[in-house]
Amino acid sequence: MLVLGIETSCDETAAALVDSGATILSNIIATQFDLLKKYGGVVPEIAARRHTESIGYVVKEALDKANKTLNDVDAVAVSSKQGLIGCLMVGVAAAKSISYARGIPLIGIHHVEGHIFANRLSHPELPFPHVCLTVSGGHTMILYVNDNSTYELMGTTLDDAAGECFDKIAKFLDISYANRNTGGGRVIDELSHQGNLKAFNFPRPMIRSKNLDFSFSGLKTSVINMFKDKIVRGESLPLPDIAASFQEAIVDVLVTKTLHAAEEKEVRAISVTGGVSANSRLRAVFQETCERKGIAVFFPPLSLCTDNAAMVAAAGYAHLKRGEFSGLRLDVFPNAPIGV
Amino acid sequence: MLKGVGLTLNKVQGIGVGLGPGSWTGIRVGVTVGKMLAYASEKPLCGVPSLEALAWSARDHSLPVYAVISVGVGDAVYAARYNVKNDEMSRVGDYFIGDIKGLAALITEPCVLVGTGAASYTEKITGESGIKIKAIEANPGGAAVAFLAARRLARGESDDALSLTPLYLKESTAKVFVNKYKP
Amino acid sequence: MYKYTFLSNSPSATLALGKRIGERLQPGSLIALTGELGCGKTLLTRGICASLGVPLRQVNSPTFVLVNEYRGRMPIFHMDMYQLGAAFDAVEFGFFDYLARAEAGVMIIEWAEKISAVLPDDCLNIKFDILSARKRRLEFTTSGNKFSDLLKELSQS
Q: Which of A8, A49, A237, C139 has most Cβ atoms within 10 angstroms of its Cβ?
């Protein structure tokens, strides 16, 4: 079954063709990076205008790259839950039109479920049940994942998402978009390689807490205050050290809580997805820790960590195989819970 | 809707879509549906400005037609003037965005005014200028869009589905609102 | 011109005030918040949104995205104009389009002074002053009758 995936929940317009939920024939993403640079964030109205401009082109390119036409497409899957309302509406409108015009089924997908499938798609050996940490600019949550696409929310952020925290600190330290052609998290990742992660001992918020929720605004405030304090005292600001220590605090919290979740549920596999799962230190610490504990850990390839439509197509396939589909009355839900 | 008139998409020969101006979210969804429907069904596409569709439904061969759509903020409106000759419609001048008073200043001769709430607009304008205006209550409807699109397509004119975008009138809105509210 | 002054002793007092405001809001309300970083604009907004049915956790300051939309018992448009360069930028990010949509809901604007040139006359202005680490003074002003009942009820409660 060839599924066309469409993703427009935030600032990336994406389309992809995936065969039987397993083989990626094409994975096209039109990013709005120049706007992100200009505004420092995703301005919903502007992002939505961009989606309208790009959606036709990405769909066409997804087909061309895969050497297919719409005649070959059996179904359409689109992110319809979780994201910016005006942006989701563009993808859903396009998906409905294609579904209607070709007489093929349509399925709406929760954006975070898409991220969960990014790993299932790239690692068919990923066992069930497992615990999945989805960590990005918009989300930080731990879900218990069963094979039947039901999810139990075990923990989520009470304030900032981890990726957001990376972006804000990168912006604050003035090392973000303006200087490089990439996001705040990636910049901090790169800078950290030259820094000493033990230079500063930033707080690991809620790390000892039994509950699996996250909170990063305290860490953010702590970094900012330390920084301002140093300026006031005329002390030097070793950016690589600050970056490395800050990153270490986030990684520490993410790894510790995810492992607690895995232990609580007695699973032997952990899946880490979302934009922040591309972080090299996060991967390294997860690998080390999981190896010690005899738990398998899985990461998607870098191309599937950030928002993309291949993961949406894969999630769509799983639902369609179970006979679930949405129909033309599919609505958008900007804030939809994923788990029970 | 197609089912309701006993048709299927196969029998449709072209797609017409209203471009705006109007609510940015609304015109965005409309244009996306139009362009993707056209692309997916491989049928020709023609975008039609919403004020033109409105004017068409109230066309008058002897009087100029002012089509008016509310901006939704205060009494601000989008408007445009059309002349009709031999069933051919042409827009006269630029799109107008502003309040009723501003629109009234543009209307210097008897005309037809068409839009939702036409009666109250006409009352205000005639109150300002004393000019006689025929008010016609109408929405920028699908039938007018379809008709105008079909006519253009019959002449071999069409729009590229992938590149079609809505008529936001962003720059014009900027000029008007910022000037209006400046102290 | 209607005025009302509220002295908040703590963040929870600000939050509670927000809830009382939210309970009484009518569709088509525009609330303009002005005050320094950390004065409690987002906190007050959280309280307002809570009364309109939006969970506290969902309400965050849209400093970089400019607008957050929430679905409560009516649509809420939460804006943060801190980043805006000039009143002109307001059109670019859809301010007037949101204004039209907010006729059926509520618009709350933080750092509203940045776009004072394009704000309608009959909005509810709330100016925050930081008096101490936890205390704030909130000065409410509005012209027109839209919020007169609300201010009356707040002053009596």
A: A8
pLDDT of A184 above 60:
yes
Could you tell me the pLDDT band of residue A92, with boundaries at 50, 70 and 90? Answer: very high
A60 touches B39 (CB < 8 A): yes
**CATH H-level, domain B3-181: superfamily:** ATPase, nucleotide binding domain (3.30.420.40)
Contacts of C63 in chain A (CB under 8 A): 41
Is there a contact between A335 and C70 if contact means CB atoms under 8 Å apart?
A: yes
Window B:109-138, CB contacts with C under 8 Å: none
Decide if B41 contacts B9 (C-beta within 8 A).
Answer: yes
* Statement to judge: residues A62 and A164 lie in one domain: no
**Do residues A63 and A42 share a domain?**
yes
Nearest chain A Cα distance for residue C129, angstroms: 22
CB neighbours of B3 closer than 8 A, spacing ≥ 6? none
Q: CB contact, 8 Å: B172 with chain C?
A: no
Cβ neighbourhood burial of A228 (10 Å; 0-12, 13-18, 19+) = exposed
User: Is the pLDDT at A158 greater than 80, yes or no?
Assistant: yes
We report the CATH number of the domain holding residue C98 as: 3.40.50.300
- Contact present, C18 and C47 (Cβ < 8 Å): yes
Domain with A222, as residue range(s), is 128-299
Of A165, A159, A260, which is closest to residue A215 (Cα–Cα)? A159
Q: What is the pLDDT of residue A182?
A: 62
Residue B12 to chain A, least CA–CA distance (Å)? 11
Cis (ω within 30 of 0) for the bond into A301?
no
Confidence of residue A71 (pLDDT cuts 50, 70, 90): very high
Q: Which helix (H) or strand (E) holds A281?
A: helix A280-293
pLDDT interval class at A167 (50, 70, 90): confident
pTM: 0.91
Of B173, B182, B183, the CB nearest to C91: B173
A52 to B32: CB separation less than 8 angstroms, yes or no? yes
* Integer Cα distance of A218 and A221 in angstroms: 5
A199 CB within 8 Å of a chain B CB: no
Domain count, chain A: 2
- Between A208-212, C48-52, C102-106, the lowest mean confidence (pLDDT) is in A208-212
**Choice between A257 and C157, residue whose per-residue pLDDT is larger:** A257
For the stretch B119-143, pLDDT in tens is: 999 999 998 888 999 999 988 878 8
Q: Quick check: C83 and A335 CB within 8 A?
A: no
Q: Does C101 touch chain A (CB under 8 A)?
A: no
CA–CA gap between residue B30 and residue A94 (Å, rounded): 10
Tally the residues of chain B. 183
Residue A254 and residue A220 share a domain = yes
Shortest Cα distance, chain C CAs vs residue B43, angstroms? 32
